[in-house]
Design a protein that fits this description.
2 strands; globular; about 400 residues
Length: about 400
């Protein structure tokens, strides 16, 4: 009992210390969100659009009415089912609405913004663990004004998903695989991109297993050890890493089973995705689709911008790929890139799908910039992205 109390007190002190160190990221994140809201209001837009447009409206209706399958239009035509949307975010919205004086739409924004605050805290923790406090602050601030960061101001689960992903990475950096698996479990109830988070924990287990087997392989009598073993490798097999890897799959697997039961098909989730028209393209179709998006898009389309931003993300991935301190981050980034960019159906949402890939901003966060220049870049970038997000919300018909 005394040991449990000491453990809890120690972790509470650690969390309190992180909160004290991380306070700038909370201020910056809230300022960025409020700036977007101010621009929406200044441009004459209704703030209700933050919770009714695009996927935010789907999440709002899901929180209000639950899952519908099959889903029909009033005239009897089949409509895409909301089973494509994962359950944890709307469930939390519903619970907040039940226990608070907030309306459902207000609860949607509250949960979204809370998820964003948790995300910048977790992102800060990752940056702080790798490179120090101000690298963590820079990484979180850059993520708050990344392309498609409008989703963090609207009723979207991207903030909460990124919090779970960043928490997973932080736990792996601290060699806490069971906690990493728990964070990945949460991610699996938020977005299909959790496959990338699960892969991160799975690769961690495989590396630990290979390391343990190499340490315990039989040696010849005349074989001389040329290097002292890592103290972390001494002991039994990596049971905790295995538990974390197994635990990480539970959330995503549970929802896939639920969708399969609702649809009556083993691969029911993919049937639902097909209703939305999302399909993976062949290599030639993909190249042709990218070329059309860049050079043959309609006037005023945002597709060329989203494809260009995606190319920048790919270049940033090349900068972190061979950094040995970023092995788990590279696995996660690769998974997000593959899942986000291997379809051409909805090219206009590339930016939002890549928003959780905060690790790709690490090379920018590590740049040596004078403090005054960093502050100026932060202010200018936040203003430009907030204004652009508000303009996109009010004028564009394509979904975010």
């Amino acid at each position: 009992m005394r040991g449990t109390a000491a453990w809890s007190a120690s972790h509470l002190r650690l969390a309190g210390r992180h909160l004290r160190l991380a306070w700038p990221v909370f201020v910056v994140f809230l300022a960025q969100r409020l700036l977007t809201v101010a621009f929406v209001h200044h441009q004459g837009g209704e703030l209700s659009r933050l919770v009714t447009r695009w996927d935010a409206g789907w999440y709002l209706r899901l929180a209000e009415s639950g899952y519908l399958y099959p889903n029909y239009f009033p005239d009897g035509r089949v409509r895409a089912s909301n089973l494509a949307y994962f359950p944890l975010f709307p469930w939390l919205v519903r619970r907040v609405e039940d226990i608070s004086p907030l309306s459902m739409s207000q609860a949607l924004l509250a949960v979204s913004w809370l998820g964003g605050l948790l995300a910048v805290w977790a992102i800060f923790a990752v940056g702080h663990a790798l490179y120090g406090r101000w690298a963590g602050v820079a990484l979180a601030a850059l993520w708050g004004m990344a392309p498609a960061s409008l989703a963090l101001t609207m009723g979207y689960p991207e903030g909460m998903f990124t919090a779970a992903a960043a928490g997973t990475l932080y736990c792996l950096l601290r060699r806490r695989p069971v906690w990493a698996g728990a964070c990945a479990l949460v991610a699996g109830l938020l977005r299909p991109s959790a496959v990338a988070v699960i892969a991160m924990v799975g690769v961690y287990f495989l590396v630990e297993l290979i390391r343990w087997r190499a340490q315990h392989r039989p040696r010849a009598e005349n074989e001389v050890m040329t290097q002292r073993p890592d103290p972390r490798d001494i002991g039994g097999p990596p049971v905790r890493a295995f538990i974390g890897a197994a635990l990480s799959t539970v959330g995503l697997a549970a929802f896939m089973v639920y969708v399969g039961i609702r649809t009556g098909e083993v691969f029911g989730y993919f049937t639902v995705q097909a209703q939305w028209g999302q399909e993976t393209a062949s290599t030639s179709e993909y190249v042709e689709g990218i070329a059309r998006g860049l050079f043959d898009a309609e006037a005023g389309s945002t597709i060329p911008l989203t494809i260009a931003a995606s190319m920048v993300y790919v270049l940033l991935f090349c900068l972190i790929l061979f950094d040995r301190t970023l092995v788990w981050a590279s696995v996660y980034a690769a998974g997000i890139l593959v899942m986000s960019l291997t379809h051409i159906t909805f090219q206009h949402v590339y930016g939002r799908q890549l928003l959780p890939a905060f690790v790709l901003l690490i090379p920018l966060a590590r740049m040596r910039v004078p403090p005054a220049g960093a502050v100026a870049a932060l202010v200018l970038g936040s203003v430009v992205m907030s204004w652009g997000g508000a303009h996109f919300l009010l004028t564009t018909t394509a979904a975010l």
